[in-house]
């Protein structure tokens, strides 16, 4: 069955990042400026991009997608996580702290994950103990210098006590 091109992004390097649907499976790939497939997830053989497909892909995209394409070329087995991480960064769902740790919102669940250099509290990381989309998104945001670093909230040690005291009215008598 011939794969169907579902998304194509033109990168600042001149290459293209593509998402294909092949026999019900999503396959990501990196194509050269001539349209030839350079690398793909799952080792899939994919067709050369047409001139019309490449011309349609020249819209401006977030630089996180360039990082995802570079990461996919280096580690094709992480292609799906690279794309998901770029979506998180482009969507503004990464918050970094001054110490380098961060919080990355989940796109599939109504929660956010604590992330640092070596750990994420998501189920994917807990199961695999390796790169999840949240850890990759944090690294992308750091590499791109965005968003601005914020200080973590620190609750005060003790809240001040009110100065006003209220007492019950004395019985009339």
What does this 3D model show about the protein?
- The chain has 173 residues and is an alpha+beta fold.
- The protein has two domains: 61 residues, no CATH class; 89 residues, no CATH class.
- It has five helices and seven strands.
- A four-stranded antiparallel beta sheet has the order 1-2-3-4.
- Strand 5 and strand 6 form a beta hairpin.
- Helix 2 runs antiparallel to helix 3 and helix 3 packs across helix 5.
- The radius of gyration is 24 Å and the shape is elongated.
- About 3% of the residues have low confidence.
Q: Topology, please?
A:
Layout: E1 4-10, E2 16-22, E3 25-31, E4 37-40, H1 51-56, H2 64-74, H3 79-90, E5 94-96, E6 102-105, E7 112-115, H4 123-128, H5 133-144
Antiparallel strand pairs: 1-2, 2-3, 3-4, 5-6, 6-7
Can you count the beta strands? 7
**End-to-end distance, in Å?**
96 Å
Question: Which percent bin holds the helix content?
Answer: 25-40%
Provide the domain count. 2
Quaternary structure of the protein: single chain
Rg for CA atoms: 24 Å
Supply the helix-strand structural class: alpha+beta
What is the compact description of this entry?
The chain is of the alpha+beta class and 173 residues long.
Could you list some keywords that capture this structure?
alpha+beta; 173 residues; 27% helix
């Amino acid at each position: 069955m011939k794969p169907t091109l579902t998304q194509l992004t033109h990168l600042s390097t001149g290459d293209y990042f593509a998402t294909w649907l092949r026999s019900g499976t999503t396959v990501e790939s990196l194509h050269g400026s001539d349209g030839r497939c350079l690398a793909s997830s799952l080792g899939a053989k994919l067709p050369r991009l047409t001139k019309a497909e490449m011309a349609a892909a020249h819209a401006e995209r977030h630089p996180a997608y360039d990082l995802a394409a570079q990461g996919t070329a280096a580690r094709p087995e992480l292609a799906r996580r690279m794309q998901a991480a770029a979506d998180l960064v482009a969507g503004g769902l990464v918050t970094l702290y001054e110490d380098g740790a961060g919080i990355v919102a989940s796109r599939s669940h109504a929660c956010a994950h604590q992330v640092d250099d070596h750990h994420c509290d998501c189920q994917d990381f807990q199961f695999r103990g390796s790169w999840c989309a949240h850890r990759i998104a944090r690294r992308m945001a750091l590499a791109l210098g965005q968003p601005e670093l914020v200080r973590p909230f620190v609750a005060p040690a003790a809240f001040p006590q009110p100065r006003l005291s209220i007492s019950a009215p004395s019985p009339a008598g």
